[in-house]
Amino acid sequence: MKLTLIEGAEVFSPHALGRTNVLVAGGHVVAIGDDLSLQGQGVAIERVDGRDFYAVPGFVDPLAHITGGGGEGGFHTRTPEMTLTDASLAGVTTLVACLGTDATTRTLPDLLAKAHALTYEGLTVHCYTGSYEVPVRTITGSVRDDILLIDRFIGVGEVAIADHRGSHPSAEELARIAADARVGGMLSGKRGIVFLHVGEAPEQLALLREVITRFPVPVTQFYPTHMNRSIELLEHGYDLARQGMVLDVTASTTPELLAQGELSAAESLHHALAAGLSHESISFSSDGNASLPDFDEAGNLVGLKMGRVQSMHDAFVDAVRQYEIPLSHALHAVSTNAARYLGLSDKGELAVGKSADIVLLERDSLAVSAVWSRGKCLVADGKPRVKSTFA
Ligand code: ZN
């Protein structure tokens, strides 16, 4: 077995551990400490000089459209698939993949196949069953059975609420989906999260509030995304965040969306912390390879761009450098919070016994220099060491 020893980096677990050494073996972090004496024969050790770097947990992206998405402007606007290096060069080692608007030409079997492919290439990829639609499209015919019987499914989503592209589910329908996800998750040792796409319609989170008021579904069963669509929507979620719900904000954006009132992910984190929310209550997702359609007031499509996984790293840098958010808090947003809330217990922390998902960041620029995922080096010297199969 080959060991990797990262020496002298300033380590964030996400909490600051100071300068120390990290030992990786068998895909896990097996020791962290100043005095790791490694002796013996027959053990190959790759030593990595980490002195110019921060060593941080691999980023965890709770929403990526790995098979592409969109198509709101017709077939030629269907976005392409994600590749390994789209994620690895951005420091993202774990993703949760899902369908979106289109669950007719985009399918769950295709999503699972792509998740297997990216996992083979080195990432960790989980999936949500379903799409925007209600009744929910599944593989087995049931949300509960999909989560219970298919390993890679850890929840359902992104179920659309308050969106003109959604199915406008009733409170009963959403409560039923949440109950199925919860029980499927309980029986298979998963969280069974209901990942909610929150659109721009004025009802915002009204449906979610109705469900948790009328039915015995805990608020922490839900994970709403796109909460940075507007300051009003973000603030609308604060009381739910105080009850333990994590608010997800989208890192991919466009100048047009920002001009319409969207907050950047970094600004959203800054705003939430300033409002007294815990640094554990906001996560960033990339919405990678989603289409980012621009609709005018009448609902006509007037522009279309594509989300990128790289936005996770861009938003992280923005949070630390522009908004002066402590590195540890920003790491919670791009890694620790999503991993914890999704129940991915060996992810989101650089700690003994956890998956060896480690990113070395240049100390000044925070550029991604090296990435290990499950102990395998995917990026070295800022360049891919492992390329996508067809790159
Ligand atoms: Zn969405």
Q: Total helix count?
A: 11
Distance between the termini: 29 Å
- What is the ordering of alpha helices and beta strands? EEEEEEHEHEHEHEHEHHEHHEEEHHEEEE
Mean pLDDT across all amino acids: 96
Unreliable spans are none
Going by helix content, strand content and strand pairing, the class is alpha/beta
Identify the notable features of this structure and list them briefly.
391 residues; alpha/beta; 9-stranded mixed β-sheet; 6-stranded parallel β-sheet; 11 helices; 19 strands; binds zinc ion
How would you describe this structure to a colleague?
The chain has 391 residues and is of the alpha/beta class. The chain is built from 11 helices and 19 strands. Strands 1, 2, 3, 4, 5, 16, 17, 18 and 19 form a 9-stranded mixed beta sheet that branches. A 6-stranded parallel beta sheet has the order 6-7-8-9-10-11. Strands 12-13 form a two-stranded parallel sheet. Helix 9 (265-274) packs across helix 10 and helix 10 packs across helix 11 (327-342). The radius of gyration is 20 Å and the shape is globular. The protein starts with a strand and ends in a 7-residue tail after the last strand. 53% of the residues are buried. The model has no long low-confidence stretch (mean pLDDT 96). It binds zinc ion. Residues 100, 158, 197, 225-226 line the site of zinc ion.
